[in-house]
Amino acid sequence: MANSEAAPGVRSYRKGPERRAQILLRAMELFAERGVGASLRAIGEAIGVSHAALRYYFANRDELLVEVYRTHENRVHEAQARERSAPEAVSAVAMMERSAERNRSIPGLVELYATLTTDALQEQQHPETRAFVQARYQRVRADLAERVRAGQESGAIAADVDPEDAAALVVAASDGLQLQWLLAPDDVDVRRSLELLERLLPGAGPAERTAAEP
Amino acid sequence: MANSEAAPGVRSYRKGPERRAQILLRAMELFAERGVGASLRAIGEAIGVSHAALRYYFANRDELLVEVYRTHENRVHEAQARERSAPEAVSAVAMMERSAERNRSIPGLVELYATLTTDALQEQQHPETRAFVQARYQRVRADLAERVRAGQESGAIAADVDPEDAAALVVAASDGLQLQWLLAPDDVDVRRSLELLERLLPGAGPAERTAAEP
């Protein structure tokens, strides 16, 4: 191999992580532009990284897709941590509205997400993707259920709403609406439909929401 | 070809549709058992139909997947037409609850549906799938929006709810919940989450609903 990647066995521990991060970034840009339909080989060609180099950093296409999505999520969480000091003040639905709004500017991302969740259904062919998606859903639902509980404590959400049922509903609505919007941008308005759901699962009240979301 | 299919050009118009329907049925059974991950060739092998024969009836894997899904939908509509005389009495959410309940007994079906919707996002690679999925969403949303309007006329649903926004929300919730349920059957309860949504978009009232749904 004449390029900058070391061959397996003589792995350069200093350059490795940087190069890996660089590849992930370029893959993310590629997916945003052209979608995720390509093979690992085609992805390598498109981002100017040899197939051998890609295979050095990622066991297979599944791992690359998962890592690209994970990188995106980490960036979002870092940005959120910088922006807000009290994330728990945001309602479950408002949380998903923001996420959908962000994703809107990165079209390839919803496609990547849809690919990961569909692959996850095929346990035999995509075991690692399945584990990643299952863990992610569990984490997101737990976070949203907490927000629903906070809404119940503040009196905004009816006490007899099951927080877990509500959390699954909010995630489902957000996922499904983004997909429908990509297929029919003139007919589907993610924000308006989610605002409808917020009537059922409101935040901590208009005053507090305005304070938490400048 | 030694099997029952005629070679292209000597298409048997009498046997053709029957054989095609038979292949669709077997493909549907295969997907229910083992998922949709296989190539057209592997599908042919699994259902005992030569690749050439499969290609005679279906231009490619996308067409087979779409036709299998369409066949399932037609069967459901026929069963509905037999069972009920007044489908418009059923609320939008109850409609999706029933659909989810049916799909639950055919696990491969939700995977097939997820595959079709994800493929649909890739306009370049799957134009026919995209057209099918777009038309299906449009049709389902229009039907649900009608049910929301009926709910508004009966006074069950708030008059300021936009029927189209509500329809997109209900489809999204139903799609997303079924997917989450497949990945975490112990954590997600499709019916309970949808019943939560029905608080926002109720049917025509308990009395009428009981009458319409024996």
UniProtKB/TrEMBL annotation, chains A, B:
Organism of derivation: Promicromonospora aerolata
Superkingdom field: Bacteria
Domain HTH tetR-type residues, every copy: 17-76
InterPro entries assigned: BetI_C (IPR039538), Homeodomain-like_sf (IPR009057), HTH-type_TetR-like_transc_reg (IPR050109), HTH_TetR (IPR001647), Tet_transcr_reg_TetR-rel_C_sf (IPR036271)
Annotated protein name in UniProt: TetR/AcrR family transcriptional regulator
SUPFAM superfamilies: Homeodomain-like (SSF46689), Tetracyclin repressor-like, C-terminal domain (SSF48498)
Signal sequence residues: none
A Pfam family matched in the record: TetR_N
Segments of the chain annotated as binding DNA: 39-58
Record's keyword terms, sorted: DNA-binding, Repressor, Transcription, Transcription regulation
